[in-house]
Amino acid sequence: MPIVNCVAILVSCALAAAREISFPPISGFAEQAVFGQSGIDITTGSAFAGLTTYANLPYVHCLAGNDEEVEKYDIAILGAPFDTGVTARPGARFGPRGIRQGSRRISSEAAWSVYTGENDFLDWAKIVDCGDAPLTFLDNTVALKQLDATHKLVSGRSANSTEYPTPRIITLGGDHTTTLSALRSTHQRWGDVSVIHFDSHIDTWDPKVLGGGISHYAGVNHGTFLHIAHEEGLIRNTSIHAGIRAPMVRPKGDLRNDIRCGFQMVKARDIDRIGISGVINRLKERVSGSKVYISVDIDVLDPAFAPATGTAEVGGWTTRELLSILDGLAGLEVVGADVVEVAPIYDNPGETTVLAAAEVVQSLIRLMVAQPVEAMSSE
Ligand SMILES: *[C@@H]1O[C@H](CO)[C@@H](O)[C@H](O)[C@H]1NC(C)=O
Ligand SMILES: *[C@@H]1O[C@H](CO)[C@@H](O)[C@H](O)[C@H]1NC(C)=O
């Protein structure tokens, strides 16, 4: 008898789930009726009320089972709270919530750009926040497998647009190791991509040089993931770094290996010589004709503009320079992107870093909205 009851309950639960999809309420009250209180409107008015999603976007349970129906989306914001692949200060596991906190002031109905006159939240693309991938904090191998599976699921649903049926993901890191999972799912959906990698560090270090001397496990970290992405055949040899200034471990070997992994570089101080438009031209020329993944390590910014990061390096770009460069990339076929290495514990009371990171995410959204991309023909 108990077994029969149990089965009956499961069936009725499943039927209820199939009948009606209910989305948890989000920040703000737009989707839920609130009791009227003697003429005082308590249903609208604040971007700071309610639970926090990126830019007060609707939350969608993107990790529901593969066969379950969820609200459709074209661009998904996905958190990757993982920071056990770092070589310096930890804390980026709180990056996703930090970036969301930095984005609280942004709301879709009041996001008209003074530079472009456009509002990317009210354009053709439906943009949602999927919350975070559930990642164990005790085993990096398992955590990255969890992140691989999450990316696969989130990128595998059909988009809201029928014309461009593959949704794109912007990942909120997490330390930079998390980009490896994103590149795996991007490769699966879109084929080879060129990477535009904003960072003060090259991150193509040979695992034997950075960490892997101890164990294979230690070799998979936030300074080697681009080497591994190259070895796995995920990225094109038309990739480029931007903002590099951190020292090399070996006098020549690291740079030789970097070229072998398919990268050129724009160094941080190059901007003094060639200017913002010069940087934009170098990046666009390098990746022209290919699909692009943009990874922004927040440490590309000078610590004056982004103190809250794991491996800060002085002598970096300003927030305005970075935003201008990103906006200058409009027209590229950006199929995936991330902002990583935001470690809010080191931020200041003015939230300098998370405000910058939130704005960078908005620039990445702008690039995706500006240029819809056709997926590979289905295999
Ligand atoms: C999503 O799809 C629906 C149905 O096709 C369409 O009406 C809507 O304009 C699309 N875009 C957004 C942003 O909701
Ligand atoms: C880059 O890759 C292409 C094909 O994927 C290959 O033909 C070419 O030789 C490579 N170039 C370099 C410099 O490795």
TrEMBL record:
The domain of life is Eukaryota
Record-listed Mn(2+) binding positions: H176, D199, H201, D203, D297, D299
Q: How is the cofactor bound?
A: Binds 2 manganese ions per subunit.
User: Gene3D superfamilies annotated for this entry?
Assistant: Ureohydrolase domain
Instruction: Fetch the InterPro entries from UniProt.
Output: Ureohydrolase, Ureohydrolase_dom_sf, Ureohydrolase_Mn_BS
Signal peptide residues are 1-18
User: GO annotations under biological process?
Assistant: putrescine biosynthetic process from arginine, via agmatine; spermidine biosynthetic process
Q: Which PROSITE patterns does the record match to this protein?
A: ARGINASE_1 (PS01053), ARGINASE_2 (PS51409)
Supply the alphabetized keyword list: Hydrolase, Manganese, Metal-binding, Polyamine biosynthesis, Signal, Spermidine biosynthesis
Which residues does UniProt call coiled coil? none
PANTHER family according to UniProt: ARGINASE/AGMATINASE (PTHR11358), HYPOTHETICAL ARGINASE FAMILY PROTEIN (EUROFUNG) (PTHR11358:SF28)
Protein name in UniProt: Arginase/deacetylase
Species whose genome carries this gene: Lentithecium fluviatile CBS 122367
